[in-house]
Amino acid sequence: MQPTAHDFKSNARAALGDKQLQDALSGLPGGLVAQRAAARARLPEFDGLRDYGRDLRNHTLEHLDVYLERYETAVKGAGGHVHWAANGDEACAAILRICQDAGARLVTKGKSMVSEEIGLNARLEGAGLEVVETDLGEYILQIRHETPSHIIAPAIHLTQGQVEADFRREHAHLPAGRRLVDPAELVDEARQILREKFIEADVGITGANFLIAETGSSIIVTNEGNGDLTQSLARVHIVITSIDKVVPTLDDASALLRLLARSATGQEITSYTTFSTGPRRDGDPDGPEAYHVVLLDNGRTELLGSEFREVLRCIRCGACMNHCPVYNAVGGHAYGWVYPGPIGAVLNPGFIGIKEAGNLPNASTFCGRCEAVCPMRIPLPKLMRHWREREFAGGDTPFTTRMALKSWAALARRPWAYHLLARLTSRAMRVASGRSGAFRWLPFATGWTGGRDFPAPQGRTFQELWAARQKQAASKRSAR
Ligand code: SF4
Q1: Of all helices (H) and strands (E), which one includes residue 41?
Q2: pTM of the model
């Protein structure tokens, strides 16, 4: 995927003016956010479980080499193969080789953000393979030639009417007068089309939510069951995932699954939670003849050894983006690369570089909601701040921002000057704003005044109020 993160500002402007996108996004806060809140309220130990999950992921990251080796040994013991990929190119090459060795023509795919990260579909299609996405949201995006805008609800930016129009265009062989009004009718139609593909597929590719070191199993969670059909009906099952997904034991995975479903969709558990361990064994009624796992690094080792290590705890639940006011306003595509929202603002600079993705850690109000809801307690605002520091240190922060920061630093070191300037500026602004008490245009805040008025400071400054309060408290104490 060609990144457009450097164009975040114009992407965001276009998103704000896109009526259809705004209609689609308007349902987000009331949906996933409310469902998560209800699920959390039903589980009294939810926050304790978050502490457990954080500690477990920290422990695993601390000993990642040990658990990955243990995982590889267990996969081989179960008859599978493990392929290590340092970057996207190596991962795509390994998958293509497996497909070609299997004489594959048709490949079905479950949802996988890692496959988006490495541009897998384009690579396989370029080699003449037919690739069919089987997750409903991903299928819709594939026929629209779009990328996901959310990590668990990839087509959340689309309205039902858009999907109906896409199906009528794409499935032109079906009767033109058929009903496609209810979501259930759209699902039925996609199911009819995909059923044939599941049966004919030579290779099925899935991602993995977790990898279990003790058993060599991979786990996927879905609500459609498409992942199960993808991996059990094809002759060859390939798991494409990243090195940070490994957990030590089945018990550990169970604890994380309890957090994942609740944080993502507010469910106690997803409709399908599927464990795969190696290829079909003698006596198994179904399953693939061969089982491969492609383990991607792609910059994660570097993150592991840096101040960004904590981001690798992420279990890709999507809660941070559901609660983010910026994501809710502009949607996922504005972020310009695979991972949107607060998690993308921390991950993307690590994968595509701070020069390309420097806008993303700055596209935050720092309201802290992302950290407050993250099941892995990842301090996302702190990590975004680290990226800002790196951007500043590398000289990539825009000139005006650097000057503003330098002025701020000079004032912050001289409190008397800061207090004086704050007092004079607020009074001058109050007078200049006239009777309206607001500005329709300000030279240093055109981004703000382009969409709304800028209220002039009213009354006393914070420092004045604070000093008055301290004085009041002191006189009360001396009166006692
Ligand atoms: S950062 Fe936290 S909230 Fe966001 S996707 Fe990852 S685990 Fe979920």
Answers
A1: helix 34-41
A2: 0.90
The three-state secondary structure class of 388 is helix
215: tokens are 């058993």
Which residues does 73 contact at the CB level (< 8 Å), separation at least 6? 216
Containing 106, the helix (H) or strand (E) segment is strand 106-109
pLDDT of 396 reads: 87
Rounded to the nearest angstrom, the distance between the alpha carbon of 40 and the centre of ligand 1 is: 15
Smallest CA separation from ligand 1 atom 8, residue: 317
The CA-based angle 244-253-37, given to 5 degrees, is 95
Residue 472 has pLDDT above 80, yes or no: yes
CA 80 – ligand 1 centroid, Å: 30
What local confidence, expressed as pLDDT, does residue 29 receive?
A: 59
**All residues at 6 or more sequence positions from 148 whose CB lies less than 8 Å from its CB, including other chains:** 113, 116, 137, 138, 141, 154, 155, 332, 338
End-to-end CA separation in angstroms for the chain = 70
Per-residue confidence band for 460, with pLDDT thresholds at 50, 70 and 90 = confident
Average the pLDDT over 50-59 and give the result.
98
Cα dihedral across residues 334, 339, 343, 344: positive or negative: negative
* Centre of ligand 1 from the C-alpha of residue 238, in Å: 25
Q: Are 252 and 56 in contact, with CB atoms under 8 Å apart?
A: yes
- d(CA 320, ligand 1 centre) in Å: 5
* pLDDT (tens digit per residue) in 145-180: 999 999 999 999 999 999 999 999 999 999 999 999
| Predicted pLDDT of residue 402 | 86
Residue nearest to atom 7 of ligand 1 (CA): 314
Which of 16-30, 148-162, 293-307 is least confident? 16-30
What domains are defined for the chain? 1-31+321-397 (no CATH), 43-298 (3.40.50.10420), 408-479 (no CATH)
- From 40, 311, 314, give the residue whose CB has the most ligand 1 atoms within 8 Å, as the site to mutate: 314
